[in-house]
Amino acid sequence: MTIHTEQLDQLIDRIPQQLESRELAPITAELTELSSPDLVVVFEHLSVQHRAMAHRLLPKDRALEVFEALDPALQSDLLTALQAPEVAQLFAELDPDDRMWLLDEVPAALAARLLSGLPAEERALTAGLLGYPQDSVGRRMTPEMVSTHVGTTVAATMQRVRDRLADAETIYTIPVLDHGRKVVGVISLRDLLGATDDTLVEHLMQAPHTAEATLDAEHAARLCVDLRLLAMPIVDSENRLVGMLTIDDAARIVEIEENEDSARQGGVEPLNRPYLSTPVFTIVRSRVVWLLVLALGAALTVQVLSAFEATIEQVTALALFVPLLIGTGGNTGNQAATTVTRALALGDVRPRDLARVLGKEVRTGAMLGLLLGCMGFGITAVFFSPDIGVVIGLTLLAVCTVAASVGGVMPLAARAIKVDPAVFSNPFITTFVDATGLIIYFLIARTVLQL
Fold first, then answer.
1. Considering the domain 148-246 in this protein, what is its CATH number?
2. Which intervals hold domain CBS (predicted)?
3. I want to staple 430 with a disulfide (CB 3.0 to 4.6 A). Which of 82, 212, 263, 330 is the partner?
4. What percent of the chain has pLDDT over 70?
């Protein structure tokens, strides 16, 4: 049953009190009636202890369903709070690729215990995924899939699908292999259902889109999403099938990466868990590093102002425009960085396109600066003097050009040196442009005003 947001909020407020007072019967009835998405929302708002207590009140099947839907960080917290038998059972019921998300969150000692408690077959499947690099698609693929072979009929392939219905994670896209397990094509379940039993699959298969298991998970996921594939075969270096990346896992990877980019562009590290379930210390840790970096950058800006103190004393009106100029420069750089970072993520540009991106951003920044500079000149000339208007107009032109150029180039430089482009985005660029913008401003003022 799905309930309204207001009713859900009331339930979330009531559950901790009922759990503390051991009113278990009424709360069990209410939790059991909720839909799984609503239960996930409830669990995200509970403390670790209350989450564990509520989880124990659910029927076994519902408990597993809700556990699978939780963020890996919350799954880790829940495993820590539950008793050993419950932990082993929940972990064993997960699909191998879902186990990898969880193993990346839990402490190493707990991960070893979880793996040792798995049945031999499941432990072998999970250990195979652990052998791939940390951020590779090999750790996000599922080894539980259905495949068929060249020369196999539709009837035989459909029987293979039926035999694997209970344990295969995806059956809608089926890789077609040659005798060396190399992927030579894919066939959809729709095409199988629409063909006669004696048709050979090689007559129905399409050219495959594959990704190597060591490829970066984000790159493979975006390829899967952009091509609108229900599942993509994952292969080894010799094009042999090792797993499948399903569309739900691909979308999950893309969402996580976009959340990380968004957080870092705002000057914080990603929380990787719901806000209300995040400890205060974790939030502080995610913000303090960037605050220190920005404080150092602000100190650099102060040094620039100090160096041009004599210039400001001669024409005090110059100080009035400092916030306008550094704010405009920072915003221009941030816009360019956000655009290029997004283009990098989508594969629209690559580090080798640096010269083309720089040329485009120089022109873009110059056009923006010309528009803003003309406006700034007109307004400043009326309220102050034509000379001040010329200084402001030229500064806006120069600052916008420099800011757009730096903002466009830095994400590409970051990718070239294997650093997250989002790290070089808004906070860093704002600090850089503040200092350089002030230097440009006062040098233009000295020249035009002959100070």
1. 3.10.580.10
2. 141-202, 204-262
3. 330
4. 89
